[in-house]
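Check my protein:
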Amino acid sequence: MFREGAVVFHRLAAATIASAFVLSAVAAQAEETYTIDPVHSQPMFEVQHMGFSLQRGSFSKATGQITLDRAAKKGTIDVTIDTTSIRTIDPRLDTNMKSENFFNVGQYPTMTFKSSNLVFDGDRVVGAEGELTMIGVTKPVSLKVSNFVCGEHPSNKRPMCGAEAAATIKRSEWGMKYGAPRSVGDEVRLILPIEAYREPAP
């Protein structure tokens, strides 16, 4: 009787351990990693010029990763923008934007946004609370995320997600005060269209 009980106990223990491994594997697979496609994820900005018009520019180089666990409603964002890649409508303005008046790219060639606090509505991301680091200053920023969608890329068939993230900041809070607010507006709207490919599970 004792021997039979021991056999049953060992079988139950083995089954419990196996179940734990399965549950751990499922939990690990629930978190997905996405790598940003830099071609289709070029940040843009909008700012008032002398109170007459809304001027726009962009950055042609951005990299980063996003993790999503839609079941647990958790995730992270880590995006780096190459400020030397700034583009406007005029090369002279590009030079000014790269100077110490604005982005000071010689000393600060990148700006970053990092978040470990995503906001979900069901399994859709609708916001992100994080920190924006620009010209050496880090401050909290809330991104509003719209048009979040995941699926298979129609051409290469790779799984991907896309969205648009946006926020309005006051550049003076990061120390970028040149021309503000009369010549160049202090409020700047940042827009990041995102397309990111899912990485294979490890």
